[in-house]
TrEMBL record:
Keyword annotations from UniProtKB, A to Z: Hydrolase
Domain CN hydrolase, residue spans: 8-273
Pfam families attached to this UniProt entry: CN_hydrolase (PF00795)
Name used for this protein in its record: Carbon-nitrogen hydrolase family protein
InterPro entries (alphabetical): Aliph_Amidase/BUP (IPR050345), C-N_Hydrolase (IPR003010), C-N_Hydrolase_sf (IPR036526)
Length: 305
């Protein structure tokens, strides 16, 4: 597959969403987007549910009607405000929000909205809501990729990526070299050893996606206390990808961000996507075809589907 460009300036960030305060969150998301653009970023990824904050949506004491009330469509005022910034700054903005497909709908999704220099591109609805998230969020049904000069870029949200590598493998097969992970990954209430335990869960899951696809993963996480101090987000936003080495095996490198950092912070850096070889999807000179064999997997899944 031919790509117009290999080099991308990208931004990820630890974002402390104000619980249930869209106005405050939107104002700071606009500020971070402009700051990233001034530092040369061509794309910025905000975390899962960054616009509304995640905590109120997992609080069973908050009526579903209230969650529906604060939810917007992709043509709503918040998206329009960020869309104007994306156009003005000439950047891509990806952010998490609760989404209604139509204004009158009562079904809502945990979604990631994608905006580009030309405006709204679309949204991805999380296919695998996590745990009690299923009580308020309807399951999405379709993967989502968007075309850029760097080739197709793919999106999954949090649990989609940590427990279901099939999604990232599908995207790699379809040509993606960069996969985005807007996430709300929680550390246990901070105590001795909790930070290390969280890191041992969060980071290896994403590095495994690199090992199994040979593409980059860009992850932006919420950070700090959320709704009524009921949950503590781990931060640790980073970009991981294939490491330059003299061996056939794929290794991981951290190109941007810091898994150990939980302060609200913006990271901007440059990636060379030519390192994302997707070699499992290329013809094996000794095997006569790609090592990745979707026709076999289809038969397997048809048996259990």
């Amino acid at each position: 597959m031919a790509y117009e460009s290999d080099i991308i300036n990208i931004a990820v960030l630890n974002f402390k969403a104000a619980p249930g305060d869209k106005e405050s969150n939107l104002k700071r998301m606009i500020g971070f987007s402009r700051a990233a653009a001034k530092r040369g970023a061509e794309m910025i990824i905000f975390p899962e549910m960054a616009l509304m904050g995640y905590g109120m949506f997992i609080d069973e004491d908050v009526p579903q009607e209230e969650k529906v009330r604060v939810t917007e469509t992709v043509n709503g005022p918040s998206t329009k405000a960020l869309e104007a910034v994306a156009k003005e700054e000439g950047i891509y903005i990806i952010f998490g929000m609760s989404e209604k497909l139509k204004e009158e709908d009562t079904d809502i999704y945990n979604s990631a909205v994608v905006l580009g220099p030309d405006g709204l591109i679309g949204s991805y609805q999380k296919i695998h809501p996590y745990g009690s998230e299923n009580m308020w969020a309807k399951r999405g049904e379709k993967p989502f990729m968007f075309d850029t000069k760097w080739g197709p870029i793919s999106v999954g949200i949090c649990y989609d990526n940590y427990q279901f590598p099939e999604l990232a493998r599908y995207y790699a097969w379809k040509g993606a070299r960069l996969h985005l992970n807007p996430t709300a990954s929680a550390e246990e209430v901070p105590n001795e050893g909790s930070r290390y335990a969280w890191q041992r869960c969060y980071r290896p899951h994403l590095e495994y996606l690199v090992l199994s696809t040979s593409i980059y993963i860009a992850s932006s996480n919420l950070t700090g206390w959320d709704w009524k101090n009921s949950v503590y987000w781990g931060g640790g936003s980073f970009v991981t990808g294939p490491k330059t080495n003299p061996f056939e095996e794929v290794e991981c490198a951290t190109y941007l961000g810091d898994v150990e950092d939980y302060q609200e912070k913006l990271y901007v850096g440059t990636l060379d996507l030519s390192l994302a070889t997707r070699h499992q999807c290329s013809d094996n000179p000794w095997g006569g075809g790609p090592d990745y064999r979707p026709s076999i997997y289809k038969k397997m899944f048809d048996e259990i589907g």
